[in-house]
Amino acid sequence: MSKEMDFLNESGKVSTTDPAKFTVEDVKEYIKFDRAKGIRDGSVAHDMAGLVNLCLFCDGNNCVEIARKHYPILFNPRRHVCSSVIERKDYDKIVVFSETISEASPYNAVRATAVVMLALCAGLRTGEVQDSKIRYLADDFSMIFLDHVKGMDSRGESRTVPIRPDADRIMKIWLKVRGKDPSPYIFPSTDPVKPLVTNTIKRDARFVSDHVGVDFDIRKIRRTYA
Questions:
Q1: In the chain, domain spans
Q2: Which of 37, 145, 208, 225 has minimal CB crowding within 10 Å?
Q3: pTM exceeds cut of 0.90
């Protein structure tokens, strides 16, 4: 570490080699130097653990922990791997299957297909499917307002999302089958004041998945929409 600090200081990357005077920006430059050399996460963490103790020992300098809060991505870089989505040909299979469902189909089959198509065409999470309100669904099925989303108590915000037109037909059928159920939810449960439980949504997705021979769940549906 001493040799690296000397090099960084001589090249003007860090302001000092004195741990008592080391700054947040100096910590950042040191980590960037390690990353540029291809140093692995474990080795970077090892260096930072040593630097924390050294700086704290020298006049209680807490620069490393402050830097950790300011530049978390440098300490724990995210390895972004694109997750799988439903291929176009398989998406089309789901849409074609939805067109085989009619008002005469079993209630659970209509609901399951409507659940999947709404999630697929609006990119909804499981919880958003459960909490979607019938009064917030546009009359022409072009969009839906979501008043209860992930992270409502922190960063989550209510939002309006467009719905792909592939869901129009099954949603019209579902609303007819649903009838005048007093529940505020698009997909009511047996309890009028509660939404469908998570397991029911999962079963609905599995029902369609099994019938079309395409492996998917609500998460994969959401990624496909995105």
A1: 2-75, 88-225
A2: 37
A3: no
- Tell me the three-class secondary structure of the chain, residue by residue: CHHHHHHHHHCCCCCCCCCCCCCHHHHHHHHHHHHHCCCCHHHHHHHHHHHHHHHHHCCCCCHHHHHHHHCHHHHCCCCCCCCCCCCHHHHHHHHHHHCCCCCCCCHHHHHHHHHHHHHHHHCCCHHHHHHCEHHHECCCCCEEEECCCCCCCCCCCCEEEECCHHHHHHHHHHHHHHCCCCCCECCECCCCCCECCHHHHHHHHHHHHHHHCCCCCHHHHHHHHC
The alpha-carbon radius of gyration of the chain (Å, integer) is 27
Kindly indicate whether the domain formed by 88-225 is annotated with CATH number 1.10.443.10.
Answer: yes
Spatial distance between the Cα atoms of 13 and 9, rounded to a whole number of angstroms: 6
